[in-house]
Amino acid sequence: MGCINLELMEKIIDILGKTSHKYIISKGPRAEEYKPLPANCWGDAHLPQMNILPMVDLVITHGGNNTVTESFTLGKPMIIMPLMGDQFDNAQRLHDKGFGIRMDPFNFTEQELIDSINKLINDHSLKGTIEPNF
To answer: Is tRNA processing among this UniProt entry's keywords (predicted)?
Structure first.
């Protein structure tokens, strides 16, 4: 539910709008309060996450169990910005294993986020290493 923190989301979205990548934004229950999204972003209050995840190259998440499990199962690297509970442990484990980057959601710079996005999207050695282990 990181999407309910409008100040945090606006900071992230403003940064995303400065990159050449395209983004899908889950706005959640406060969707009507968001300012207009940049041209390279699209979003809505409710999104079919499991339909969208197979099409993306990277997931930026608060790191809850559902999103982490779904993203990991589909082999998607993550930028995890934990806010509470299990999210801190999930973020640290993914970071330690090299499948994602843990970032403090309240203490990161524009350049840190952009560099993390580019690093994970362009890490060709990572592609194919995140595979389900059933």
So the answer is: no
**Which residues are within 8 A (CB) of 64 and not within 5 positions of it... i.e. 6 or more apart?**
85, 86, 87, 90
Q: Which two tokens stand for residue 40?
A: 């390279």
For the chain, the residue count is 134
* DSSP track, 30-97: GGGGSPPPPTTEEEESS--HHHHGGG-S-EEE---HHHHHHHHHTT--EEE---STTHHHHHHHHHHH
Q: State which H helix or E strand residue 23 sits in.
A: strand 23-26
Question: Mean pLDDT, the chain, as a whole number?
Answer: 90
pTM of the complete model: 0.89
Q: Where are the domains of the chain?
A: 2-121
Q: Does the domain formed by 2-121 have CATH 3.90.1280.10?
A: no
DSSP code per residue over 95-119: HHHTSEEE--TTS--HHHHHHHHHH
Q: pLDDT tier at 130 (50, 70, 90 boundaries)? A: low
Question: What average pLDDT does the segment 51-79 reach?
Answer: 92
Residues 6+ apart with CB under 8 A from 105: 2, 8, 62, 81, 82, 83
